[in-house]
Amino acid sequence: MHADETPKQDALSVHRRAVAVDMHADTVQFVIDEGADISGRVETTHLDAVRMREGGLDAQFFSIWVEPEYFGTGGERAIGRADAQVEAVRALAENRPDIWTLATTAADIRRAAAGGKLAALLGLEGGYAIDEKIERVGHYFARGVRYMTPTWTHSLSWAGSSGDEEGRTRGLDGFGRRVIREMNRLGMMVDVSHVSDKTFWDMVETSTSPVIASHSNCRALTNAPRNLTDEMVAAIAATGGFVSVVFYPGFLDQNWRARRDSLDRELEPRVREVALGRGLSGPHERIAADRFRERVYAERLEAVPLARVADHVDRVVELAGVEHVALGSDFDGITATPEGLSSVAELPNLTAELLRRGYTADDVTKILGGNVLRVMEETEGRAAR
Ligand SMILES: [Zn+2]
For a disulfide at 55, which of 211, 223, 306, 345, Cβ 3.0-4.6 Å? Predict the structure, then answer.
């Protein structure tokens, strides 16, 4: 490196050489509900193809997320909502093969990156869509889904969530263990983000392939039920998996989280007015409420510096080593972003911060995507053929 090269230029050159993979973004909701064309530049999302290129991101796992409030925790409507999202991601590659490639393996991602294409991948957030039927795991695998977390914020009969009371005592039941074994057999990564502590330990015990957290942080730094304890981080590393650090300030910074909680109590009546007053329903009601919160958070809460993201990366590295950390932004699923990480286009700012902290280009290449590729290859290799 030349003495006059700034860390930012260096970060860009690391991005150009690395294969960068983000484990979690909710962008497909906006594709379905608002018709966002993310093959071009979009003003209303955190992520699109243009800004993926600007930010040096080669591959994105799109979250297939069923909102229980509007679609239930199982049944035809939940299945329909999940399937529609899967098809919307597949349609990116079908309609714009000049930009996107549907990727289901590590080799697909490497090929896409080498060929200048963006890789679109699928991850299922919440097992509602399998509707308590083991064969539906195979259905989603066949459609390209390569990771699944059993729950979102509502516990299921077969797995507990970190987001409700039932989850505290609910682990995996017999069916839940069968689901994990079926994922191992097929070669679908086992994701613990959102599950309860009890379910986490049951998943680690049951899975014979590496366990991942697609978008979770460290509880030692930010006490949120859905963040991971130090013991959990170490257990994930012991399976060979990784923790993908999430960019939501509420999971990054204890003070921001506390201030948001008290602001939320104040805003609650107005949030309902905003959505109901416009006669909105279903996901449009939620999107309107989220945008209202986003605007007020930006006005009233001091932004969290992107250094907090690097702090969580540091913590995982201290506990488990640089082979066991990755990135799971949760872009388009979060109502606030860290300063300097307002969209995927700003990802090189994080790389610059990691380089400034002494990580080598090799380390950063692992964090940006090398670790994900390794775990995908191992998961593929362990699948029954
Ligand atoms: Zn999530």
Answer: 345
